[in-house]
Amino acid sequence: MPVLECRAATRSFGSGRRRRTALAACTFAAELGEIVGIVGPNGAGKTTLLAAIAGDVRLSGGEIVVHGRRAGTGAARRAVGYAPDPPNAPPELTGLEWLAYLASHRAPTGAARDCLVRWAVGLADLSGFVGRRVATYSRGMAQRLALGAAAVTGDRVVVLDETLNGIDPIVQRRLRGSLSDLAADGRLVVVASHDLGTLERIATRVVVLAAGRVRADVSTAELLGERVAELTLTGSALAGVSRLLTRFRGASRTGHGIAVPLRGGLTVEHVLAVCRQDRVPVAASRVRYRMLEDLLVAAVSADGGVA
Amino acid sequence: MSASPKPLAFRAECELGLQLVIRNRPVRLVVLLVAMVVAMAVAGGVRGNLAAAGRLTFVAGGSLMAVAASRLLAKGAALAAARRAAAPACLHAAGRLTAITVVGGPLVAGMAALLAGSAAGWAPLARLILVGWTYAAAVAALALMLGPIIGASGAASAALVLVWLGGIPPSGMQGVFEAWPPVQRPVVWLWNLLPLGWRAHRLHVEGEMIDAILLGGWVVIGVAVAAWAAARAPVEPARGAL
Lengths: 307, 242
Prior knowledge:
The complex is a heterodimer.
Chain A: E1 4-13, E2 20-30, E3 35-39, H1 46-54, E4 61-66, E5 69-70, H2 74-79, E6 80-83, H3 95-104, H4 110-123, H5 139-153, E7 157-161, H6 169-184, E8 188-192, H7 196-202, E9 205-210, E10 213-219, H8 220-225, E11 227-232, H9 241-247, E12 252-254, E13 257-261, H10 268-277, E14 284-289, H11 292-301
Parallel strand pairs in A: 3-8, 3-9, 6-7, 7-8
Antiparallel strand pairs in A: 1-2, 1-4, 4-5, 9-10, 11-13, 11-14, 12-13
Helix pairs in contact in A: 3-4, 3-5, 4-5
Chain B: H1 6-22, H2 25-43, H3 50-70, H4 77-85, H5 89-116, H6 122-165, H7 170-176, H8 181-193, H9 197-206, H10 209-232
């Protein structure tokens, strides 16, 4: 049974001519133990979706159900740990005080609270600076504290908005492991990020949002199981790119040519044959795994050329 | 561990309230300002004049509480902290108000003792301290409830205006707005309803029970409205509409 269900979640801001729709009938579901990546261009509605899951934004239509309760109710909010972007821990507090405050609302005893705080400090790798005031933190430190805070408060669902951005690669590698541990521990982790490489490594599923709608919802294993033929075109051949894009379903432009998903029995030989037929000389070709970026570009392009 | 453990959570709210107040620069500046005003009044010979000591205690103590309490549940990190903790909203409001009352109360009491001096006698002094503390709690509740609605600066400003003008009794306000009857009525009505200095002064001098009930009632109203406002205040995405 899904722990998180978005059913035609809709949210608009403003009114009249200034009305803008951030979420338009956004629908998907996720289960405990999953790590779901939310990707999309700027303004796609990622932050609004995450805030709505956390109960910080009221929907204009549809509903979001968290652990059997409507998002925003007390029971649903107690099930969700949310790390917003930018992080919003009170600057007057130290990281340790902030975690202790949040843990006090979850733990039944002082000893359990201390235990929860120690666990969060280890999980988000905070030990080097947790005693300092939040006001003195760098962005990366604040993001890590937000992750620890979300882990403390999220009994079932941990929602992270761009939390892994701005963190150095060494720590980020450790945090990827921590997120996997949270999922293995039986929580749902929802991560919105523009860092597609990181999501490819940790997410079990990826939901692509564009203009507030879910454009694609695929498992990472399925995505990485697909192949893409990447053709390098030079000189006058680049003029043929737009023609080739119409010949292959899901093809997208790259910096130096095109990328064609090899689906439905399509092989790189077939692709090269079409290029020869269209008299488009190919300088080089290679076959690689399909990346999240390909999925994002294809999903967003299908939306009307946002990419 | 999903059930909210109330005693631990209430203590955490009190501690957070203290940290938000004690570590805030504007609050420290107001404490300094109030200390200087009190020192000047003492040096100027206010001691022994119980009525004057009372009025000054209400203005100085009210100013201190207005600024300190305005940020306890204000939009921003303080409100977000309540949202992230996901406890019943009245717990946040009550815990943080308790903290400010426990810290601010003795300061107001000390101020009253300094201004009144021992010559006034112990019983009148104790009464001034009690009234001062009650008034300070009512002003704090008012600023606390405005925080989630209009933010820390707005709440502090509104509460400060009421503290400074609140010494004028309703009859005085009636006179001020005599030329504007449509404004006069609501202003006088508000002046009778809000926890203002004139009421604290009357309670101190005449001991009217209705004044004690109204000031005490404002503590309850403040907590209830703050809890309601904190639960309803939008915490929209910080980076804009989408």
